[in-house]
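The records we work with from here on pair a chain with its fold. The integers have meaning only within a learned vocabulary of local backbone shapes. A complete example follows; check for yourself that the lines match position by position.

:::
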Amino acid sequence: MRVIIPGLNNKANGLPDLPLVIWMILVTLLCGVLAGYDASALISGFNQGYGASIGEFALILIPSFVLAAAIEQQRIDMSPRVSVGMAPFSAAGMVCPDTAYAALSPMCLQRKLPMAFGAFAGFKLLFPAGPLIVAASVAADTSTTLLLSVTIFIPVWLTGLLYGRMIEDRILGQPVHTGARLQISYSSLCALLPFLILAILLVIGVLFDMRFNVWADFVTNPKGALIVSAAVALAKIPASDRRPAVDKGVRRAAELLVIIGAASAFSMVVTSVVPVEEIFMGSTSELVTLLTLFLLTAAFKVLQGSSMSVFAAVGPIAAPIVAAAGISPVLAALAICLGSFIAILPNDSFYWLVRQDAMPDKSELVVTSALVAGAVLQALVGMVLLLALAAFNIF
């Protein structure tokens, strides 16, 4: 996870090649020193910010990555059309578009680009991936965020499907065979059981008040539903593979938890120095603030590449902006998710996965243009819809 400016040599531009988390810690400490904090106050503020939301994110990330690690060990065998349809939901459930694409690609000999853009959209806009992670940062209501994210996801997903088909038909020149049978094996359905359980629990939690029973209330909460789904996924793999899957999930979560802590500390220290309230309170419309969050996230994505790192870093930084502007945290969460679409660049591992699998014989210019244009188009479609919903106070 390093700060890379596409097209520029890091040594030539004088920037040290450091991980994002180190950059945030250094900038946080520098801001505190320049603001005149003494050592005790600076370290105290850093500590308070660092631990502000770690617990909540741990309950999201650890079971999500354990679920993904367990699913990775099960072969999902299905027809290409089903693979394309399953891509966004697999990417959301695995909390990783790369893993979902890699798992489904062997069964999808055609329409790889629609599958890729579908996985990208699902990871950004479906629970328990992007919206749940960002909602926790900006204190957005999870039920309303779930409803809005699905509303925006549908046109964004369809945009990616149509764009991917157009690129394959007109630019890549790949023939399409429509005679393949729609097949889903029993083993495939069993492999998808944890996702089904997760979806059912989330829907029950949205539709019904389960507070009459503490257990029912917990398992229909997104965090409890994730733990149940991860447990089901672990139960489906051999006992000897369960501990390695848990270890892998914990390692993946630990790296992001460090970034989230650093971003929270950065937010606390910087907002005590920068008058965020004066900048955003009463002087900026809701639409302008949403665009600001969208562009802020897009800038992080272009520099960082990793979508998970962007979610981890931007959420805590955006939280005081949302509070100061007085805008809907739900709308803010989705603006951040949509900003993270921009863009699929060479500093994103998803770029190389799709490039090598779907367009191995095309030039870097063609690949980059196709992937960037598709991701930006999805982002703009989603953002136009979000701004329309905000303008008419629908959410």
About this structure: DSSP finds 19 helices and no strands in the chain. The mean pLDDT is 80. Residues 40-174+183-391 form one domain. The chain has one domain: 40-174+183-391.
